[in-house]
Amino acid sequence: MAKKVAVLLDNEFEDIEFTSPKEAIENAGHEVVVIGKNANEEVTGKHGEKVTVDVGIADAKAEDYDALLLPGGFAPDLLRGDSEGRFGAFAKYYTTNDVPVFAICHGPQILIDTDDLEGRTMTAVLNIRKDLSNAGAHVVDESVVVDKNIVTSRTPDDLDDFNHEIAKQLEA
């Protein structure tokens, strides 16, 4: 059965951390929906990839999606700067309801705002590991980590393992 995967995206996302998982998700027969600050707004990755936002966060309902993808780059930090905390609140639906979350590189930063990381085992790019640890997560240095519904990876070097795990989780 085809599933819908929400992606939280803003400018300065890491291009390959969006395009590679998106391709893997679509190749497995699932749909990717980009959620950003405003519908129909174009966001640009660090290396020039342009993506049009499908749904603005004000109109997005987390329960409409079967999984959540959080690419890295500087975008997660920009999304966390939302004065209303809407992106963290959106992600919290997934952490509290055991709905799959796929976060790579800086992507797990958004999960910090859920206040649901206590005791979870995760990985991420080196720069945010201390932040995850301060949020209560047990942080390890592995290419991909699965802790119940949360799948995390470190960097683009881990995309093969990350994408494989995404496909596996969406099969379930």
UniProtKB/TrEMBL annotation:
InterPro entries: C56_PfpI-like (IPR006286), Class_I_gatase-like (IPR029062), DJ-1/PfpI (IPR002818). PROSITE patterns: PEPTIDASE_C56_PFPI (PS51276). SUPFAM superfamilies: Class I glutamine amidotransferase-like. Residues 3-169 form the DJ-1/PfpI domain. NCBIfam families: PfpI (TIGR01382). Belongs to the peptidase C56 family. This is General stress protein GSP18.
